Queue: 3 jobs
Job 1
Amino acid sequence: MHIKGRDVLEYRKDKIVAAGRDHRRFTIGWLDVEHQQLKDIVVDRFNDNLAWTETLSAKVATYQKGRWLFQDGIWRISDPSNPQGVKEESFKERWVDIPEKPEEFALEDKVTDDMGGRELLERTRRLQRLGASTNKEQVAWHMRWALPFANLVVIALAIPYALRSGAHGRTQNFSYALVLAFLYWGVTSVCQSFGEQGQMPAWLSAWTANILFSTLALWRLARLT
């Protein structure tokens, strides 16, 4: 796995917020994948109704043999029997069974434009397990298949104008072709936005511009024959 040309084991990053399994949310002050360590870590956990149940915070959390060792921290848990509604307990060391590995937080922190197809699918499956929205990831995955056709569509749109003769006509036709190219990218951006907001199916938001402008290009080419 690589991140912007660097191996994931060399990945270090500050101020990460990530969703986790079992309705957990992680706020990480510093992530060091190479040393399998998190610093200034806060783990909030919620129930199925998304109501807060507990918070585990620590100065350092180290991943060792499939488990997390939290050090110098505080554990807070919802306790209706307590007058304040919260039970609090300090600790020097506490072993915690959290399924996420350090490298998963590096994956979570990446933007979709920097992710490969497999990484997008992994994040999509993870978010689906959490019941979170996957619109952005699904649109990004479909866009990876749709965008390579963009050059072909733009060229096909330009061919009918390029075949017209006359110096004045060529200048005018070039302007028309340029406008169509901008329209193509405009439609692509708008549909992508709709897809990420869940207002369009992910596949449709990625392929609408190709479908519309390919149809227009074929119609224009047919008129030349």
Job 2
Amino acid sequence: MRVEEARRIVEGEAKTLDPLEIRVEESLGYVLGEDIAAPIPLPIFDNSAMDGYAIRSEDTLGAKEGNPISFRIIGESRTGNPFLGKVGPFEAVGIGTGAQIPEGADAVIEIEEVEVVGETIRVRNNVERWRNVRMRGEEIAEKDVVLRKGELMTPGKIALLSALGIERIWVTRKPDVSIVVTGEEVVPPGIPLPPGRIYDSNTPFLSSSLLEMGIKPRSVRLVGDSEEDIREAIEEAIEGSDLLIITGGVSVGKTDLVKYILEERLGARRLIWRVRQRPGHPFYFATLDGKPVFGLPGNPAAVAVCFYLYLYPFLNKMRGAEGGLREARAILLERFKKKAGLAYFPRVKIEGVGEGLRATPLRWQGSNMIASIAYADGMAYIPEELETVDPGTEVDLFLFPSYFLKAR
């Protein structure tokens, strides 16, 4: 199967999960399930941008250094304790930053611009109308749509909704995802490594990639190559989950039992097995009890490439968002050779910004080489029919989420 067809099939199976009402303060990482209109304006009242005195601007006409105009101080307006009277001709109200502008006033003169003499201030310059006044609704008008359905909740958006007095919102439920990592050779980090074994990097990669999307894995389990152990792990993992990820056991070796167990023992419906791509050729996709099951190859670079190509957009759709990795175009700086008949996804370093991106393939391109994911900014897409891509050729890129987190 071609990559394009595999992606289309996977996308067609993705379904958005149910809505969920939660507190705004707990919504970080969720995707909005509704448009949100402002119930109040921001600011909610005219307020001062400076410490100073609230006055009527028209009373300052003609004020200059040799001819100051005096204003009688009649009170104070402080944050949370506004002045409730009305400012009349040649009257002033002391005011703090953020405090409500009293009725009758239409300007604030900075405290350092006046001379205070007892209960009066002297003004030596004309003050324009609305000087240092933050107008009611100038940031957000009442009933403005401030956030749209499908937007990801961030700290800034949480702060905005809180400032509008909104306590609860509807979001899309996050998927419950379970992970089963197979392979007799795989052991968790932190224990002595027996002969012939390797440390597990697939579990940390998948778990952290899910967390990067705001999804906490429901369960994670490492199993060997025993048919019964794998079956038991799959049955336990699929129970209560919305989606299952399995790594290893999907190729054609003697210990590659995952496909057999899913289909022959558990009744899974196969949709994809083997895609014309590298890494990730044995990629497997099925449904079990109506739930999506992704079978990823065991090699760590293949796991990462398949996750970004297929799982990333699928999970986004489940949580109410749209789209996969951000895509771009770049000039390849070094020659890249590959086998015809397979699409390749070489991991690359990226230079430049905007439309001037340049990509260099990393030296680690084996499907077993996790360094190619650790040091990459993204992956290029080299179509099946090509064998050699010369320097200077423009190629398509998939940009990893980490690319946008790099220190600039």
Job 3
Amino acid sequence: MIEEWDQRFIEKEWMEEWKEEQKKVIEQCREFRKEMREIAIPLRINWIDEEVKKLEQEVVDAYLNDSQLRKEKKPYWFRKVILNDLRETDKKESMIRKLKAERHYLSNMLRNQESNKVDVSEIKKRIESTITLNSRGFINCPFHEDKTPSMKWFPDSEVFHCFSCGWHGDLIAFIMKRDKMSFKEVIKKYE
């Protein structure tokens, strides 16, 4: 009997340690993804710049070859047969336009990332300080008629859960639904 209890206790301790390690690994993965996004966008922009230069040069060369053949008064069908590059010129010009549009999008995205860095955890702390909970961590649910508090705040997972209507969400989702605001409006309000 004592051995079974010891075994269960050891398993429980091991599970708690494993959960802590799992949380650390998940956080490290999030940080790694964030760093990779910050690195990948400038690398992609540099690649696009080089590719556009190369394609533009190929298009210019094709048109120069065509103009040279025109000066020599070669017929149209002959120029088209000789200059395979010129046949692909439309594709290359289309590719150049697409790459320039992607570069524009990525540079805007990079600019927005740098200017719109928001510390969501700080905003959540500010929101949390405005919500008054009773001694057990409950409040009246604003999403249905509620005479006794049925919405509980779980500080470990930073979520609300209403045991009457079943609504479940974090602080920002709570403010968005309660005040009928968009995510951006909530962030601006509590910044």
